[in-house]
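Sample intake sheet
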Amino acid sequence: MDKRDELGRFLFGVSSASLGLLAGLRQLLPHKAAPVHNASYMLVVSAALLLLSAVCALYLAVPKNRQIPPDKIELVSLQRENANEITTVAIIWFGLWILGVAAAGFQLTF
C-alpha cells in the first residue's frame, strides 16, 4: 500500500504551520521586523522557500493512479521507481523547508 499521499499531507501541514509561525512571530516582534512596505529581504526569501516546500508537499499529497502496462510484469521495478520518486521529492522538500526556517530564524534573531 502506498502511503505517498499521507506523507504529502503531513509535509504540507509542517510547511503551512511554519509559514503561520513565521507570520505570527513577525507580528509579535515588530521591533525586529521591518514595516510591510519595506519588508526584510530574508523574510521574503524565507516565505518563498516555505511556499516552495508546501508546493513539493502538495505534489506528494495528490494521489497518483499509475497505469501498469500489460506487458510489464516486473512490479518490483515499478515499486522501486515510485520509492525513488518519493524519496527525491521528500529530500527536496526538506532542503527547501530547512533553508526557509533557517532564513527566518536568522532574520528574526539578528
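Comment: The chain has a mean pLDDT of 84. The CA atoms of residues 31 and 108 lie 10 Å apart.
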